[in-house]
Amino acid sequence: MRSTRESAVILADHVRSWAEAGRVVGAELMVLEDGELVVHEASGWSDRERGRELEKNSLYRVRSMTKPLVATAIFKLAEAAELDLDDTVARHLPAWDNPRSGAVTLRQLLHQVGGFEQSAWPQPLARYRSLRAAVDAMGEHGPQHPPGSTYRYSDIGSATLGAIIAERTGEPAERILSEWICEPLEMRDSHFHFEVDAPWAARVNSTYRWTVASGRGVGGFERYWDPSRAQVVPFFRAAGGMYCSIRDYARFLELWLGLGEWKGRRLISEASARAALEPGPFGRYGMSWDLPTTARAGQLPWAFGHGGSDGTAALVVPERRLIALYFTQSRGRDLMYCFAMRAGDAFELPGPMPKWTELARETELELVSLDAAQRRAIVGTYEFGGPDKRLEVFEVEGGVLQTWLRGEEVQLVPLSDRRFALGWHRGGAGVELRCDDDVRLVFGLAGGQAELMEIRREEDVLATGTRVCRGSRG
């Protein structure tokens, strides 16, 4: 087996090559073994247009990597007998006390089995005046599936837990995370609300998204946010919203590697930490932690971690006392999945992390050019299971192929003449569209969502039980 140093150098070479090749605008890598720094590198740009190079320990929007901090605060409240993980949300938030939402429990939200789809807010989150207003509206609206019946990764769970933290403590959730977690862990570069005039604002990296420039498959990153602009959602979202350095997040991971203890100080009990690292009802997600497919109840997983939709990712391997973090603000090419795959190869880990390796080999393919005839062969409306269920693929100016996902136009990036990947869209879910010899299209939601539709021109059969639908071209 390679030494940790040898493995970290191999991983660093991969990350550096992505920045040099323009596959990310910039990236930072940190690897620690038993609390000692092994590798720490930064490559590429913090703001490409302004010629600002990426610096070590600059600040990132870590998005969903906020969720484990929210869970940690919930565990502290449970240990203080302020709540029980098996409480219904309705016990703490009256707006949830109705037939639609009354059965949802805190434990279900932690395990992502509360029944909520991603981005299922009754209206865009930015339109609400506060986190509590958004969560109350969601409680009145109710989940899309019976609570506990299915795994669905959704921001609504952690947002609701954030509102419960505020309700039980009488303080904003972000203040509790700062006082209960960041201050004891000396996470001085961690923040939960952005203001353009904040003294730390200039250290925040600009954020980029991958877009398709033409139907020839030419794509690139465009800057869609920089620290001269206010954040879109005017309040702390709890499912995301944290800004921090890679070193700060490493400290938080050290707490969890220590099963709730950091430098002799215990923040949560070992029992809480071990429970959080056990798989949930559908075996793929702990309590706000991604787990390997081999995770089993009653034992520590060989690895755990989490990712964020702007490209950040972290991996912890308890047996080897290993922490690896990959931070970028280049959204849309899913290289955090490639990071998980390359980390597994470099450190010779025993298996995949489920959500993190699904698209890894796909995103390492080169883009291709499609001619007009190839594009015309794909354009059309596909029915599956009836006229109310349709997938439309259309061509816009410049030869760009697009489809619709959750009410948004989504660009399709050609990886071959038969396989496509998502360019970018605000919802953050991945899309795969494949075309084989019989013009079957496969349209799936990545990021752990169990949706897959196979669509054939010559068939009109709706399969049941497997969530696979076949239909005809309209």
Automatic annotation (TrEMBL):
Domain Beta-lactamase-related: 13-333
Pfam family, one: Beta-lactamase
Name this polypeptide is given: Putative penicillin-binding protein PbpX
Organism: Enhygromyxa salina
